[in-house]
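During the reporting period the student researcher (J.K.) took over the structure-prediction task from the postdoctoral fellow and processed the backlog of single-chain submissions. One of the processed entries is reproduced below for the supervisory committee.
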Amino acid sequence: MNEPAPSEQEISRPPRKGLYVLPNAISLAALFAAFYAIVMAMNGRFEAAVYGIFAAAVLDSLDGRVARMTRTQSAFGEQMDSMCDMVSFGAAPALIVYIWALRDLGRWGWVPAFVYIAGAALRLARFNTNIGVVDRRYFQGLPSPAAAALVMGLIWVAHDAGLRGVTRIDWLAWTAFAVTLYAGLTMVSNAPFYSFKELSFKRSVPFVVIVAIALGIAVINIDPPTVLFALFVAYGVSGYVVYAWKRSKGRPVSLFATSTDEPDERGLHR
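J.K. obtained the following structure tokens:
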């Protein structure tokens, strides 16, 4: 028995598109970690809030790699990742540091928190529009996860040192002011920060590299909050060191980009 021919409407109907589960699930997990961090900060549990943002950063480093490994990249996934990054490394750190140290500074406390969240939004928007233009070896401006680690690292160190009631410790509140403002402005700078994208775990390395990794783990274990915060600070200033080195070599470099699609930074172009 012959089956009825499909109607013209059925023929013209485009195939239904689905979404890849695994990379988007990882992005959602990162978003939940950031939401958890905000809730913990609202309840005064700032150390748990720090762990939430760090967990979001780890998950954020996985979703793109998983998508490439499983060949499940999609335009939806890219937009989903950007939205989650804005919450995880933009809104969440700004709110947490505001609740932790800045709220008793009055309207002055709004300044670094808003500069930070605005810097994260501008940083992510510029990154999305500059894909394929900027040299993949370097990030243009401080990456938002590194900026969040810098701000959260300060909270972690202070909490580990037993400093409570930060809003009543003037020097620490103004330190948080300076670090948050620095992180926000550095995200929108044109300073080149090494991206580590050229590192490959598939290559063989000398034995001394494995020994160095073991020593690094041992050093971090001595005092994780202090050592990791020191690493975050070192990375947070490394872009300006590279910028100064380029200037010393006579290369034309601008600290702040003058265009969103053509960064005024030859050292960052392919």
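The committee noted the following: Strands lie at 138-140, 192-194.
J.K. will present the remaining backlog at the next meeting.
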